[in-house]
Amino acid sequence: MKCFLTVNELNEPCSAKSFLMAVMLAIGFFIAVPDARSESVDLSKTTQACLTCHDKEGEQKKLENGDLLPLHISTKAYTESMHKETDCEDCHSNIESKTHGKEKISIKSRRDYTLGMGESCRECHKKNFKAYADGLHAALVKEGSKADRKDAPLCSNCHNPHTVKSVKIIEPITATPCATCHEAIFNAYAKDVHGLERIAKGKTAPICSDCHQAHDNKAASMGNAIKDACLTCHKDAVKQHNDWLPNTDRHFEAISCPVCHAPTAQRRVNLRLYDNLAKHQVSEKLGVPQFELKADAADADKLGLDGRALQSLLREFNQPGTENRTILRGRLEVRSGVDAHQISEKSKAIKDCDTCHKTGAEAFQSVSLTIAGPDGRPIRHGVQKDVLSSLLATESIRGFYAIGSTRIKLLDVLLVLVVLGALAVPLGHMTVKRLFKGVRDKREAEERAAQVKASTQELTGNRRRDDDTPQ
Ligand code: HEC
Ligand code: HEC
Ligand code: HEC
Ligand code: HEC
Ligand code: HEC
Ligand code: HEC
Ligand code: HEC
Ligand code: HEC
Ligand code: HEC
Description:
The chain is of the alpha+beta class. The chain folds into 3 domains: 7-120, no CATH class; 170-212, no CATH class; 265-468, no CATH class. It has 24 helices and 7 strands. Strands 3, 4, 5, 6 and 7 form a 5-stranded mixed β-sheet that branches. It is globular and about 75 Å long. The relative contact order is 0.07. The model is unreliable at 1-38, 392-411, 421-440 and 447-471 (pLDDT under 50). Bound molecules: heme C (HEC) (9 copies).
């Protein structure tokens, strides 16, 4: 139990001891007045009035679930904050001045209070509010609390409204609000090239929000936002890779940068369901979890989808009338969030083509099928790794047995890659062109082109990328 100000102002009975405390606090307040005044000259009268009660260290209010809501607002910090010209009541418009502080208002939990105050930033920061509302964190807030994850942030979880400083101030990286909830990732980042560069040189190197956006953030594996962020700073990257990596654009599209730049990372193939008409990842609608149901049904023995199961699942997504609309698009990724934030200096990056372009390469040993969940984060279902090659033996690519059976190593591998890159259902003849184009590029790269070229040109004739081809 506690007595916040004077006994009379509170409805709750106070013990003699806390009464004494209150008196001492009141005396303390009067002694402190000249100081508080000089700090608060910039503040409006109403704000100062609030602070006469609230600038008291250690005061807390016990909420229904036992959480403690701090009641102390420092006048000094408030006067130094970007909100010094904002009145308390601009945000706390629901304070009932007659009864406030006298009648106890019951609040369920800390989170409940935060949620209740969630709208208070909208009026003055319309642009950020809109950006945030379109982002992933806001989607997670809408989904509500979940036992298996932390609560997603609202504005006030990242910006303390009573102490907020200008974003132009360079703070130590530990001050990033993201660190509280994404601790493991933060720890990895703090030790990678960017974290170390940030510590040494400040803002030139990216912190979380430079790659992910502070407000309009999206699931990390969605779209090209992160890649584009990398290329905004590393303007010459495509050119520099082109010096040794054939068809850099294609590699950049199919491989997440940390796959090569976090050399110790574990990798995996992500077969994404892709809407080939709308040209974006297929996403699950909120409350209609068809993907998991269908995947579970197709994978009755829970060993991961095999080639046949994957085909039948794809047919589910390509009902009569929408044939071939949903295809698979492969992407090479790192397996964990920590792995993604262990970018090393360039000398350690993976340059050896064989890391990927060889049968049984490590990167191809873990395969999953994903759909974008309602919040954009991938929902995964395991796929047996043999699928990458066994897909070759399914009807969807009829006519390719010949290629598969020649067992020419290079062809084999490239075929897998083509499947990985753009498995259409059916793959159709365009893939042959892709395949041979791939072979050709590779041969060119190795300056042993002549022979292959001749046969390839015949086949490729009209060369279009099959993933750009309406099926
Ligand atoms: C007379 C002293 C006093 C003044 C003046 C005062 N408060 Fe309070 N305030 C309190 C006390 C006491 C509590 C704790 C009430 C409780 O335990 O339920 C409180 C609680 C709060 C809370 C926590 C949530 C809640 O409603 O319980 C907020 C927010 C708050 N005050 C904001 C303000 C603002 C803004 C002003 C100025 C407009 C203000 N207060 C003026 C005494 C005061
Ligand atoms: C820019 C908007 C804004 C202004 C201005 C503002 N507040 Fe708040 N205040 C909030 C929000 C949002 C919360 C909820 C924070 C949370 O969930 O932790 C809050 C929470 C509080 C709390 C309770 C718990 C906490 O987080 O400290 C008190 C007490 C409080 N405010 C008092 C004040 C007083 C006194 C002033 C004026 C000196 C003031 N506020 C000015 C937005 C504001
Ligand atoms: C997940 C953490 C996070 C959340 C949630 C968040 N912000 Fe931010 N905000 C940041 C970071 C980090 C920066 C500085 C970097 C930047 O601007 O990209 C920032 C910058 C700002 C800025 C100054 C720069 C500018 O764009 O004007 C304002 C104002 C702001 N946020 C308001 C808000 C409001 C309002 C909300 C809620 C709708 C909100 N923020 C939610 C992390 C967050
Ligand atoms: C009554 C208007 C008002 C409200 C409501 C308000 N702000 Fe502000 N905010 C301001 C003003 C004025 C500034 C000063 C800088 C500016 O003009 O952008 C500011 C600055 C900021 C900054 C620093 C921007 C920078 O350029 O570095 C952040 C972050 C911020 N506010 C977050 C919030 C959050 C979070 C909330 C809700 C809890 C909120 N604001 C509610 C008026 C408001
Ligand atoms: C240099 C750019 C960069 C910076 C800085 C960065 N990230 Fe990332 N982040 C990435 C990339 C790249 C991925 C992997 C995306 C993919 O799948 O291709 C990722 C993935 C993530 C994920 C998803 C992890 C998962 O389980 O799938 C989270 C969460 C995340 N980052 C948070 C953070 C936080 C928090 C920080 C700051 C401590 C941060 N990031 C800093 C680039 C960055
Ligand atoms: C209050 C807690 C909290 C804060 C603060 C926070 N996040 Fe998150 N964030 C979450 C939760 C919860 C998720 C969803 C589950 C997960 O990935 O842990 C999430 C997810 C993400 C994802 C998507 C991960 C994926 O699977 O693709 C990214 C990216 C991300 N956050 C970046 C950031 C950045 C950048 C900041 C700081 C500007 C930040 N977060 C601050 C709680 C937080
Ligand atoms: C196939 C592996 C691979 C992929 C994918 C890859 N990189 Fe690289 N990258 C390398 C290697 C190897 C080097 C070092 C080249 C050298 O030093 O000759 C390098 C060098 C770099 C450099 C330093 C350039 C310089 O010369 O100073 C940057 C910056 C870079 N990469 C950014 C990226 C970004 C951004 C992406 C994703 C869009 C990416 N890389 C994707 C392998 C890769
Ligand atoms: C805000 C700008 C910025 C963004 C965004 C950014 N970087 Fe960097 N990066 C830097 C700076 C600054 C350095 C250190 C100086 C240098 O070596 O160029 C660096 C260093 C690197 C290096 C080491 C280069 C070397 O010479 O050893 C690699 C590799 C790299 N970044 C890759 C990436 C990748 C991949 C992404 C996106 C996931 C990314 N960067 C996003 C600014 C950025
Ligand atoms: C980290 C793994 C990785 C590394 C390292 C790598 N590649 Fe690739 N490569 C791929 C993937 C995945 C594709 C499939 C892209 C697609 O078609 O979607 C591919 C595609 C290709 C293609 C076909 C491009 C096209 O037009 O379809 C050629 C040629 C190629 N790589 C050559 C090379 C050479 C030469 C090297 C070494 C200098 C190399 N790759 C290094 C993963 C890698």
